[in-house]
Amino acid sequence: MKTVRSVRGLREALKPQRAAGRDVGLVPTMGYLHEGHLALIRRARAGHDVVVVSLFVNPAQFRPSEDLEAYPRDEDRDAALAEAEGVDLLFAPSLEEIYPEGFDTTVSVGGLTSVLCGDPRGRGPEHFAGVTTVVTKLFNIVQPDAAYFGQKDAQQALVIRKLVRDLDIPVRIEVCPTVRDQDGLALSSRNAYLSPLERERALSLSRALRAAESTVAAGELDAASVLAAARHELDQAGVEPEYLELRSVTDLSLVERVNGSTLLAVAARVGGARLIDNTILGDAT
Ligand code: AMP
Questions:
Q1: Active site residue 37
Q2: Which of 27, 35, 40, 56 should be mutated for ligand 1, with most atoms under 8 A from CB?
Q3: How much of the chain exceeds pLDDT 70, in percent?
Q4: Which of 4, 144, 145, 179 could form a cystine bridge with 9, CB 3.0-4.6 A?
Q5: Are 5 and 93 contacting, i.e. CB atoms less than 8 angstroms apart?
């Protein structure tokens, strides 16, 4: 595996691969890799001749009050994990490489980005503009045949699919299932912030999702009842959600009744960690 830090270096490394007709899979990450990231990497490894993993903590998707400085970083460990998974190229650019002096362009997707994690009372649509700007850059730099994202960030995956569709970016978007710890907690680099007690409380997010699934499985499809079942689990743990909502998985509009394609999404702060999780209710349960 080769670590590359410049756009030019990456293009040079990929040129002979493309000339030989090899196809390329990209896994964008902010590093501090865990099994969730590794699942995406394995999917990419199984499907492509060349696998590129990007490692970039993107300031543009953090709010000024967020944890940009504290965000966990360990490039040596990430490189060892990526290498063990057979990654070919680790793209780990500096801030200046991605946002050189004078950089002043934003790519923003409308519609889907002002609810849930994009709600102006929370992170705001600027969060997603930060994501879509850097992802567009990564797509242009790497020009992958496919890029791999996690269902854990369900809204992000929808926004990226829309970005690619609206701008005719020639990349296939693959979305992989959420990887969880044995106790149900969705893996996240931010779980590193949790004390053992906070981790216990954090389990209420996945419990809330399971409670909603059971409610739906028992035939209750009314949104208020399903949300109440989920909310109960959060209340028990003293966790106040930033949001807990049922929305259409296609356009994120609010739903009154669960149908085959309803997303239940939750975000909550537990200690110093802002955690998110989701499940699709209906057909999948
Ligand atoms: P991040 O480094 O947190 O920006 O995540 C990089 C990619 O990994 C995104 O596409 C995430 O959706 C995905 N990801 C993060 N956590 C998980 C998880 N627990 N299961 C599956 N994918 C994940």
A1: yes
A2: 40
A3: 99
A4: 4
A5: yes
